[in-house]
Amino acid sequence: MEKQKEIRKIDVESIETRATESNDHLIEGYINKFDKKSQFMKFFEQVDRNAFNRTLAQGHNIFGMYNHSSDKILGSTKTGSLKLSVDEVGLRFSLQINPNVSYAKDVYELVRSGDVDGCSFGFYVLEDEWSYQDDGTELRTILDLELLECTITPFPAYLDSEASVRSYDQFKNKQLEQQKQEEQRKLKQRQIAIELELL
Prior knowledge:
By secondary structure, the protein is α+β, with helices and mostly antiparallel strands. The protein is 28% helix and 40% strand.
């Protein structure tokens, strides 16, 4: 089955800018925080604390962008301008902005002023699992993913995506199929029991 790109826009809480002694312009914060559930989108979702390990170890190029626009690249892991690391809190990023690129400097200033305060990431889900919470709602846990890009965005809300809804629909269909099979199994058992009583 073809992989479907999913995008999550999250309320970051702690995105910030800073300038170093060597006059580097940095935007830093967390792309994703562990143990934080999404907004309700027919289900809740969270990212396992090991979900980023493989994609970071593989070392493929991951882009830093503004608002998911490939026309507004802010950095990349290939050049070292985007650094990603996992700690106890979540997936942390440090993005070194090139002040000679006008839109990049504009993004830096917008973050510095607080007008833009969100992060997002685009990814493929490689493995997930579904479970029920105490209140009966379903919880999707992403166990492994392929990270494609990290984005600075003015829209810091955790949004639904078509791919995640497809995953949910597959989960529900599988659940219905299992229920149907269980009902058929019980019906067959009852029929056998009736036949045995008639003997």
